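Protein folds are increasingly written down as discrete tokens. With that in mind, we are printing a sequence and the tokens encoding its fold.
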Amino acid sequence: MRKYDSPLHIVSAQLAELGLTFGQWSVEGKSNEIPAVRELLDLLDISGCIVVADALNCQKETAKAIVDGGADYLLNVKGNHENLRQDIEDYVQDDGLRKAMDTYSTLEKNSGRIEKRIAYATDDVDWISGKEEWENLSCIGAVNRLVTTGEETTNEWHYYISSCKLTAEELLKHALLEWSVETMHWLLDVHFREDFCRIEDRNVQQNLNIARKTALNSIKDFKMKSKSKKPISNIMFDCLLDPNYLLTVLAS
């Protein structure tokens, strides 16, 4: 049995609108994820899509790979590109400049938790230092999240670059879809306890990850088509108790 020396990291490509995983690439070690993303993109037909990635994959080579694949990118900018992030932050936090940006907001209330999101976007990017190093850079933006629970309010800012001239509403929509990938990883951990899996064989780990994602895909597809309001955990439990219900889910 072949063992590996470090935890297996699996890069996933997801159809965010549907919450379905349709591609993945495994690497040993978090630092190897950056080139793995580009290898995965090279295997997929991404033409006409908007590829949204987290701050780790906000890389010039990745942006170029996305554009070369006929797609656009929306990348979260954080500390790995401190100067770029600071430039965008200074622009957005300037009251006069921010007032001129396209703006869109949403408000959600759920079980005593209130979340307000305010998105800003502009195609005024010619002033950015090193703009030419980012393939087709055409837009910058930000999302401000204000979450109130009881008497406590958190205030977070997220900054973005894109090769597509997005409106604030479009930027917020795609940014939220990127967060759905984090939800997928959360579901794998909560419902399948994936982070606690101690199997050391690489192939078995990969196959189990595919099986878990296939199960999640089937359940999400069933929920969408049947318009079921049951939580995923209840559907999984019902499948465990009733083989006929399981067949219904698989046949959806």
Q: What stands out?
A: The chain has a mean pLDDT of 86. The chain is about 40% helix and 25% strand. The helical segments are 33-43, 60-68, 82-93, 95-100, 168-192, 202-226, 232-241, 243-250. Strands lie at 8-15, 20-28, 50-53, 72-77, 102-110, 113-122, 139-149, 152-162.
